[in-house]
Structure formats: structure tokens, C-alpha cells
Write a sequence for this structure.
């Protein structure tokens, strides 16, 4: 292992699509961690879903050996991070194990919303920030403008900015030297008792839980007894080492290093991201400050397609929670769908990713209910409830008032699309609080708007009306009074609890109409008419009908007296009436999904 003065821990942070993973590729190639014939783009994005969507979801660590100009061998621990706002928790965990950050700015797009919020996050953790201007090989690159924005918007010295092209590998050698010279070495005492922070984990079916950690003090060796401080469970280290794309075993990890340990942990619940690992025989005095508790903003229930698969789903959720610390869940039941879980997510993309990971990595067939946010409901007796599940919503007569969460949304966009963005924000009940021209071509709009309005299709529509040029970031600001109603969907007169949702009363009718129309297209026709209704309490506010299939009972009746035909039709009428009284309507899986989709999809 390298001595502590020859270790550098750093991460790459930036807005979405500014070239973090491509730059990580170039650094890995330069360090010759993988032969050219085995190399593939976005090599750190090892989940299928990351490759298909072209986004990073999990932050990944890798150790790069580097010989500096002064002849010393350095060990560089790089953490590649996601850029999307839904995964900012992932970024905060990566940042806490580093001393420096490369802040990437796209030379064609300049400073964007996530660039700012990631920089503030790095400053909160006292990281040394080195600005890097990427994509200088592009025709649309404007390096002077990017430098000006780094000075004006970020308040950093643009003369320190490095110019690179991650795609072509230009400026990567200078970048390596800057990492060595401008980032500080980690501080830590190898002679002190062991103190290490768990910043990630994953589950290996053969070896149990693989714990990713950053050692702050002390040394960890094979065969040593360690303890997790949150629950005092003791394990013996079976293997440990560093990340060099594969897990490479080393004899020990000392203060300042980033690596992994395997200690035969089979109980998934024993390991918690943000926990401190210490020696069982010589424990450290106090635990490291972990990560702040994650606050989910979007809630949805998740059920197995076949209720017999509930136990398998529970085990899958535990393993997924290990790898994604921002997932929050508890048990839940539904009359229509049986046993399941009520989950909290950091955003809609996070929800989609969890759904796809459950289906791909754990072979689970699942149904998600419509997403909602957490409302505060005040009852007439003065009691206050937190409600995120429509089934917990009290009766209309008991409610005095309700409040919904609001966000401060910041949109940075070219001035060309200003009118479109304002119309969209108005439609979503947004109130403009600030408008700042960053320069002649770019404007920043700040809106107060309800979080529930951003959930459905806000981000997709913002991208389409601005041709992908606008960037969006938000912070939760607090609660404000609202007019809330519980919208029930009735099928053949019976409510389907899994389709119920809490909505703003002024938009309830439009929402009910949309859900009824979607269901009408998805529910297969029966021998009798099926009414689909949207209701608030006992008042029906929308209706669609699935028409009956017409069976031709007269096909076998050719010629002869009209009374024969009439007799057959009367018989059919009676049968239909009886069928309608006992007729159960099957709701196909596609119907639940159709309700969640936006119009264009």
C-alpha cells in the first residue's frame, strides 16, 4: 500500500451529460488498468440500465496507479458520480470519502443547475475544487464564455480551469498532474484505533455483503475482528483490497485508503451505509459523522404480480436497499393487490430505476401504484396527520384543512424559450419569485410550486419545450395550505383501492377523466357494459363506458317466424342482466401502468 502522502482521493462532479463517465474512461485507460482490447465506453457503468439510458446511477470507485513527474508512485482513488438530481444522495456519499473534486463544465453548455448544487455540496464537505472545462473539441465550444461563467456563476478562479476533451483524451496528462499537485493528501493516523466509514455496499451471492469503505484512522488486515458501531455486530475479515475494475485483494488497507472488505456478512440488515467500522478489540472513541437522513419526496406502493411471490420480493428489497441507501420502505396491504410495500423515493427517475432493477436483477414481476407526495392533514379536533397513502386519508367531514409540500424550482434556460417555460410553470400552479439574466443568452427563473405538480410529466415537458437546453433543480422549502381531495376510481360500481389518489381539487376532474379514458382503452370488453367512474366522496365527476361485446345469438336462426328470434333475444337479455349482477371485471396489469404514463407515451 502507498504511504499516506502519496494517496489522493477525488471525485468527478457535474451536471447531467457533461462528460463525467467519459473522463473517468480516459483516466482508467491512461492508468492501463484494462487492456485496450477489453476496453468499453462508460466502463464504470456496470448496470445494464445505466448503459441503455446513458446515465450513471451508482457512484463507482476505482484505484488508479500513477507515476508523477517527480518520479513518485501515487495511488489515486477516483469516484465517478451521477449527475441527475434524483441521485444527489449518491453524490453526497461519494463526496464524503474524498478530499478533492473535479468540477466539470461543458464548453458548449456552460454552468447548469446541477453544476451549482454539486459545487455547494462539495464546499459543505470542505473539498478542494478544481474546475475543468470539457468538450473543447466540439464545434459549438465557447471556452471564453465557459471561463466567464466559472468566474461569475461559481465564483472560482477561471485561470485555474483545465481544458480537456474527454472524448479525444486531450489534456488528460495535465489533469493527472493537477490531481497530484492541487489536491491535498488525506489526513489520518495509521497508528490510531481503526475508524472507517461505509460509503456503499453490494451483495455477492457467493461471498455475502461486500462493504465499500474509506479508512480514516488505523489499519485493517485479513483475519482481524471488526465491529459495526450502529449495532455492535462483530465479524472477522476474510478478504480485503482495492477496486481496480475488478476487486483486487491486498494484505491490508491503511489510513487514507479507499477499498472493500468481505467478512462473511450474510445478515443484510447488519450493514448500513454511513455506519462506522472499528476494531472489535481496540474500538475507536466515537463514530464518524454518517450521512444526513435521506428524505423521500415521492411515495408509491409496490406489489408482486403473484401474491405468492411476496417473500421473494421482501428479500429482493433488502438486497436492493443495501446497494441503494436512499430507498425507504415499509409493509403495506391492498384489497385489490394483496401484500406489498409502501416505498419512498427521491424522484420519479429513482422510482423507474428501482422498478427496472427489481425486474432485471432480481427477476421480480411487480406493480407500482400512482406516485404521490406526503400531505399534512389537520382534523377538526386539532390533531394533525401525515398522509402519503390515499387509504389513510380521513373522511371529508373530519378535515379542517390540508397542506402540501412546496419546492423552490430553479430553471436555467436560453432566453429563446422563456415564454414556453413560464406557461408550463403557470399551468403547474407555480408562482414566479425571481428572474435573473445570467448573460445575453441565458436566464434563470425561480418558482415556488407544489411538489405534486412536478411529479408527473414536468421534467419531460420542460425538456421537450426547450429542446433539451433547459436545466432543472429543486429544493423542498416547506408546506403551504391546499385544497385536497381523494379521487376514487370505481369499476362496475366498486372502488379499486390501488387506483385511488390524492389530488388538488381544482384538477381532480381533469385527472379523473384522464384515468377513466386510459382504463377504457385497457380493459377488455365483456358480455355486459362496464362503467368506469371517477368519484370524490359520493359525487361522480367523470365517467367512461366499456361497451358490451355483442354475441350474435340469431346466427343459428335462419328463416321462420319472428317470435323464434324474439324468444332468443329475450333469453339473451335475461342472461345479460344476471351476468351483470355477478359479473367481476378483471383489471389487467397494463391498466395500472397505463394510468402512470403521460399522454405522449
Amino acid at each position: 500500500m502507498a504511504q499516506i502522502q502519496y494517496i489522493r482521493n477525488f471525485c468527478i462532479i457535474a451536471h447531467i451529460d457533461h462528460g463525467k463517465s467519459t473522463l473517468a474512461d480516459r483516466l482508467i485507460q491512461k492508468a492501463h488498468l484494462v487492456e485496450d482490447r477489453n476496453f468499453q465506453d462508460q466502463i464504470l457503468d456496470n448496470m445494464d440500465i445505466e448503459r441503455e439510458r446513458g446515465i450513471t446511477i451508482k457512484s463507482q470507485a476505482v484505484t488508479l496507479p500513477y507515476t508523477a513527474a517527480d518520479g513518485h508512485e501515487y495511488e489515486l482513488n477516483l469516484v465517478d458520480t451521477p449527475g441527475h438530481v434524483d441521485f444527489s444522495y449518491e453524490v453526497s456519499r461519494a463526496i464524503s470519502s474524498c478530499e478533492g473534486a473535479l468540477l466539470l463544465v461543458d464548453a458548449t453548455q456552460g454552468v447548469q443547475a446541477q453544476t451549482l448544487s454539486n459545487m455547494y455540496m462539495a464546499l459543505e464537505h470542505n473539498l478542494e475544487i478544481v474546475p475543468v472545462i470539457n468538450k473543447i473539441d466540439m464545434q459549438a465550444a465557447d471556452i471564453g464564455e465557459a471561463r466567464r461563467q466559472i468566474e461569475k456563476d461559481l465564483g472560482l478562479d477561471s485561470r485555474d480551469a483545465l481544458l480537456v476533451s474527454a472524448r479525444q483524451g486531450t489534456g488528460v496528462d495535465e489533469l493527472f498532474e493537477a490531481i497530484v499537485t492541487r489536491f491535498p493528501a488525506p489526513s489520518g493516523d495509521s497508528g490510531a484505533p481503526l475508524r472507517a466509514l461505509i460509503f456503499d455496499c453490494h451483495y455477492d451471492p457467493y461471498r455475502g455483503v461486500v462493504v465499500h469503505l474509506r479508512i480514516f484512522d488505523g489499519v485493517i488486515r485479513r483475519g482481524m475482528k471488526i465491529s459495526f458501531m450502529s449495532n455492535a455486530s462483530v465479524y472477522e475479515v476474510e478478504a480485503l483490497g482495492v477496486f481496480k475494475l475488478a476487486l483486487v485483494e491486498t494484505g491490508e488497507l491503511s489510513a487514507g485508503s479507499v477499498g472493500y472488505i468481505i467478512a462473511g456478512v450474510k445478515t443484510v440488515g447488519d450493514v448500513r451505509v454511513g455506519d462506522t467500522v472499528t476494531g472489535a478489540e481496540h474500538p475507536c472513541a466515537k463514530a464518524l459523522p454518517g450521512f444526513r437522513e435521506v428524505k423521500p419526496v415521492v411515495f408509491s406502493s409496490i406489489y408482486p404480480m403473484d401474491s405468492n411471490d411476496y417473500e421473494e420480493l421482501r428479500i429482493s428489497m433488502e438486497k436492493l436497499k443495501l446497494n441503494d441507501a436512499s430507498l425507504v420502505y415499509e409493509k403495506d396491504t391492498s384489497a385489490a393487490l394483496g401484500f406489498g410495500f409502501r416505498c419512498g423515493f427521491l424522484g420519479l427517475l429513482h422510482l423507474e430505476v428501482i422498478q427496472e432493477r427489481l425486474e432485471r436483477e432480481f427477476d421480480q414481476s411487480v406493480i407500482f401504484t400512482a406516485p404521490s407526495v406526503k400531505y399534512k392533514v389537520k382534523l377538526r379536533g386539532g390533531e394533525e396527520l401525515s398522509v402519503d397513502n390515499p387509504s389513510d386519508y380521513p373522511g371529508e367531514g373530519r378535515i379542517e384543512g390540508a397542506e402540501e409540500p412546496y419546492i423552490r424550482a430553479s430553471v436555467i434556460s436560453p432566453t429563446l424559450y422563456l415564454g414556453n417555460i413560464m406557461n408550463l410553470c403557470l399551468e403547474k400552479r407555480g408562482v414566479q419569485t425571481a428572474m435573473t439574466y445570467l448573460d445575453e443568452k441565458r436566464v434563470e427563473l425561480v418558482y415556488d410550486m407544489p411538489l405534486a405538480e412536478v411529479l408527473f410529466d414536468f421534467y419531460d415537458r420542460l425538456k421537450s419545450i426547450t429542446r433539451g437546453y433547459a436545466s432543472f433543480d429543486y429544493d423542498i422549502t416547506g408546506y403551504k395550505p391546499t385544497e385536497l381531495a381523494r379521487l376514487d376510481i370505481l369499476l362496475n360500481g366498486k372502488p379499486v383501492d390501488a387506483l385511488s389518489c390524492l389530488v388538488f381539487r381544482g384538477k381532480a376532474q381533469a385527472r379523473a377523466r384522464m384515468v377513466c379514458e386510459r382504463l377504457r382503452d385497457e380493459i377488455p370488453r365483456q358480455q355486459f357494459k362496464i362503467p368506469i367512474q371517477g368519484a370524490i366522496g359520493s359525487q361522480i365527476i367523470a365517467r367512461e363506458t366499456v361497451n358490451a361485446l355483442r354475441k350474435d345469438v340469431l346466427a343459428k336462426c335462419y328463416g321462420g317466424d319472428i317470435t323464434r328470434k324474439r324468444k332468443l333475444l329475450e333469453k339473451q337479455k335475461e342472461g345479460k342482466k344476471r351476468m351483470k349482477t355477478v359479473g367481476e371485471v378483471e383489471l389487467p396489469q397494463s391498466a395500472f401502468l397505463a394510468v402512470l404514463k403521460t399522454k405522449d407515451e
